[in-house]
Design brief:
mainly alpha, elongated, 10 helices, 251 residues
Amino acid sequence: MSAYAALSQAGYRAYTRDKTTLFFTFAFPLLFLVVFGLIFQGQEVEQSGKPYINYIAPGVLSWGVANAAVFGVGFTLMQWRRDDILRLVRMTPTRPLSVLGSRYVLALAIGVVQAVLFVAVAVLPSFGLSLSARWPLALPVLVLGITAFLAIGVVVGSYARTPEAVAAVANCLMLPMAFLSGSFFPLDAMPQWMQTLSRVLPLRYFNDGVSAALTGTDGTGDIAVACAVLAAFALVLCAVALKTFRWSDKS
């Protein structure tokens, strides 16, 4: 517990002192919200008759939170290995769960703050997102989604040896997934083969769960399904992350 607390505190201090990263972590998804929100302002999806903001806001929010989880832990693990920080930590009675747990708590805190800030902007009259009465159900979806994508980030950070490699691999995973999962454009407006392909991607269920909770366009059963699928993804991906975690580039 002492190792976990020390690593959590160190991670928090390092993160808050990096003003550039801190700013863009929260500003990046808001930029997409502003761009897509203004482009599709007042428009409806022809296939469903629902406002675009009902799709765009939850989708961009999910992608932004997932993106921060993947990149945050990916860059950190790569840098800690490169600078031999993990090698020094390994010489102490510290287990991988303590290292990863400290990053997990930080990722959860960042994700919740991202979501609160994002929703606060999305409900402004300029964008017009209307929250449903069951918006608190978005919290378990966020926790499970962050868990799954943090595990992806651990795998990326365990193998990538340079910042460029982390950025390349993470972007190759997250950008296509965003388009295929309906983060930027409604799945209802996409070809059937893309809708089918999206069912094997965790971001699809992250989007669906957050959308159902925030907008109320789907029933609570859809939130339960999203949580169940995300939990399954999280279990599998966490097992892979623990198996692939490396203290150094030589082990």
